[in-house]
């Protein structure tokens, strides 16, 4: 009997362990989903219009993207951001970027953002619970975070994001 | 044997080294100790099970700076940990909070230990 209990325990532990292995260890679920956007401060960049938390608290669905010109995956998702910008308002927060590099990057690749700000020391990114770049947040018309996408938005993700936004509308 | 002793001494000397850079440190050693104590409780989000005091990752450095900034502003240890927890969830804490959905993490190992002891060590009549 005692060996039976032990075997049952070992088998159930092995199953839980196996299930755990299938999880993506790089993905950390956001604590801010269904929460109001955090209060934050970003530096304005001369060439572009900046924004604050007040800009995101009303109006239509908005997309907030954390990016940087030094981040290669951000370049990968850029065409998808441009596609999203045809339908929705995109707000960009450049993390620890040099203004000169950022301006050149946006000039070369195109600027999908309606407003851009600079998170010079990474503190705004912490306010938003960002742990890597790029990260993208969907904000509803009341200023609540409805979805967070970690990593570059690929073509296959666009459909899911569009579906999410349509459901909210 | 001497070589092993040498390795042991070297490991002992360097065992208390942190990734904290001199420009991050607070001037007051008491406050700096508080910051290190908080940092040891916070898991680096992009590393393999390293606390932020020992990690060179960018996010770990940012969190160390944030902790020291908040301490300088007079924030309590509990408030700072709670702020970071509110942003990054349970994953960031080495000690998961006791809630209805996490209670089994605490109860199950103790319960199982008691059960096993009962099964294997009870006196046979």
Describe the protein in words.
The complex is a heterodimer of chains A (169) and B (125). By secondary structure, chain A is of the alpha/beta class. Chain A contains six helices and six strands. Chain A has one domain (31-168): Glutaredoxin. In chain A, strands 1-4-3-2-5-6 form a six-stranded mixed beta sheet. Chain A is elongated. Chain B has a single domain (2-96), classed as Helicase, Ruva Protein, domain 3 (Orthogonal Bundle), CATH 1.10.8. In chain B, 58% of the residues lie in helices and 0% in strands. The longest helix of chain B is centred in the C-terminal third of the chain and has 19 residues, at 103-121. The mean pLDDT of chain B is 87. The A-B interface holds A 1-2, 5-6, 9, 26, 28-32, 38, 96, 121-123, 125-129, 131-132 and B 45-46, 58-59, 62-63, 65-66, 69, 84-89, 91, 112, 115-116, 119-120.
Any key phrases for this structure?
A: 169 residues; Glutaredoxin; six-stranded mixed β-sheet; 41% helix; elongated; B: 125 residues; mainly alpha; Helicase, Ruva Protein, domain 3; 5 helices
Provide the fold topology.
The complex is a heterodimer of chains A (169) and B (125).
Chain A: H1 2-21, E1 43-44, H2 53-56, E2 62-67, H3 72-87, E3 89-95, H4 99-109, E4 115-119, H5 123-127, E5 135-139, E6 145-150, H6 155-168
Parallel strand pairs in A: 2-3, 3-4
Antiparallel strand pairs in A: 1-4, 2-5, 5-6
Chain B: H1 2-14, H2 29-41, H3 58-72, H4 77-88, H5 103-121
Helix pairs in contact in B: 2-3
Annotation field: number of helices of chain B: 5
Q: Largest sheet of chain A, if any? A: 6 strands, mixed
Give the ordered list of helices and strands of chain A.
HEHEHEHEHEEH
Average the pLDDT over all residues of chain A and give the rounded result: 92
Low-confidence blocks of residues of chain B: none
Counted by DSSP, the helix tally of chain A is: 6
| CATH H-level superfamily of chain B | Cytochrome C biogenesis protein
Q: Which word captures the global form of chain B? A: flat
Going across the biggest sheet of chain A, name each strand in turn: 1-4-3-2-5-6
Rg of chain A over CA atoms, rounded to whole Å, is 20 Å
Instruction: Report the C-alpha radius of gyration of chain B, rounded.
Output: 20 Å
- Estimate nothing, just give the exact number of structural domains of chain B: 1
Mean pLDDT of chain B: 87
Helical content of chain A stands at 40-55%
Shape of chain A: elongated
Strand content of chain A: 15-25%
CATH evolutionary superfamily of chain A: Glutaredoxin
